[in-house]
Amino acid sequence: MTWLNMIRTAVQGITSNKLRSALTMTGIIIGVASVIAMLALGNGARREVESSFRFLGSDEIEIGMEQTLEDGEMKPKGKLLSFADGLEMAANVPLVDRVEMTVTGYGKARNGRYVADITATGAMADALPGLAQKNQTQPLGWPDGQPLTNEAFLANGRFFTPAEVAGGAEVCVLAHKTALDLFAGDDPVGETIWLNRQRCQVIGVLRELESTDPQERYGRTNINEGLYLPISTAVTHLFAEEPAVSIAAHVRDETQMETAKEQISTYLRQRHGIILDGADNYTDDFYMTTRQDVLGAKLEAARTFSLLLAAMATVSLVVGGIGIMNVMLVSVTERTREIGVRMAIGARRRDLILHFLLEAMLISALGGLLGTAVGILVIPLAAQLNGSPALLQPNSIPLAFGVALLTGVVFGLYPAVRAAHLKPIDALRYE
């Protein structure tokens, strides 16, 4: 029998019972659609993580304060990370180029009869772009790809200068909604407000901000409340006790991140008086995190999510493959006499194996094509439900189709071999 005849016979076998063939394909369709969606979501998540990593920069080491739970409250494990720790770090750690610090407090801002509960952020002079990146915010309507500088965030006035930070100037910059709450639409630049009992001259107003994370856009109101003031002013006047600050050190050479971490550890251990314990170990009261650590954790989460989807797709394909095997076994049984006749007129075992295997592969191939189409159509919905972008790469389609075809071969082989090993006499006598 020629290949053309075998294909024609296989097609007739499939179309002779269309409903049964369609139901058999269902598992393959679901499995292939799952593979397509899985690959697209996995690629999208990986691209998003890598993009975020590039956006945030890879030369930064975040330094945080170790805490411990005591009497139901989180308390410092040792000394606080202080403003002085960060202020002297760049001068004492060779690989640190510059240091960013922030400190946050809460209080009441007052302008005459207007009063607002606000979050006050003490920051460095070039803090806004970095804070916006970490908080996933940007000026409302800001074009993609445009650089974010301090000026990009200002609707009016200016941001404080390095000299004002160094000198502890009594100045502040209001967020969009806070400016409206305290000045009812009037221009606040040049006016004076009271933050708790601290006098502050308003030197600027921020534009309205929005979240760059679509899932967080509903929180726009919160990110537009508060004010910014020099960190030295905040540390000196805003708190009753010395506050813990957040420190981010930028290294001179990204290839020496581990060495930089060791230098920072040595510096902070000296300042905090941390010495070796009896087991020659340091019990640090701080921790460090790099962007590589964050990237690795996020990529690991993305891989875990992809593996979960892959497991679901595998289950669907196995179920579909079992359906193909079941249908092919039924087909072999129904066509036993036909098989006997073919053997009687000279058909070889190899011909019978190829015939039934081809029939199984055609079912899986057709299911693979339909599953590919379904998978492409459901990608936008899956991305929306998952809350992350999806990226369909061209090589995903032949990969998914190949998996479907392989499923047909694996699960169609046993019925084909069983048909080929029937005894001609018994097959001809079968009723």
Mean pLDDT across the residues is 83
Helicity level: 40-55%
Broad shape: elongated
Enumerate the strands of the largest sheet in spatial order, edge to edge or round the barrel.
4-5-12-8-10-9
Assess the beta-strand content as a share of residues: 15-25%
Biggest sheet architecture: 6 strands, mixed, barrel
Q: How many distinct helices?
A: 16
Quaternary structure classification = single chain
Ends: how far apart?
25 Å
Order of helices and strands: HHEEEHHEEHEHEHEHEEEHEHEHEHHHHH
- Whole-number radius of gyration? 34 Å
Tell me the number of strands: 14
Low-confidence stretches: none
Structural class: alpha+beta
Q: How are the SSEs placed, and which strands pair?
A:
Blueprint: H1 3-15, H2 18-56, E1 60-65, E2 67-70, E3 73-76, H3 83-87, H4 89-92, E4 96-111, E5 114-123, H5 127-134, E6 137-139, H6 150-153, E7 154-157, H7 162-167, E8 171-174, H8 176-183, E9 192-195, E10 198-206, E11 209-211, H9 220-223, E12 227-230, H10 231-238, E13 246-251, H11 257-272, E14 286-290, H12 291-334, H13 336-344, H14 349-386, H15 396-420, H16 424-429
Parallel strand pairs: 5-12, 8-10
Antiparallel strand pairs: 1-13, 1-14, 2-3, 4-5, 4-9, 4-13, 6-11, 7-10, 8-12, 9-10
Helix pairs in contact: 1-14, 2-12, 2-14, 2-15, 12-14, 12-15, 14-15
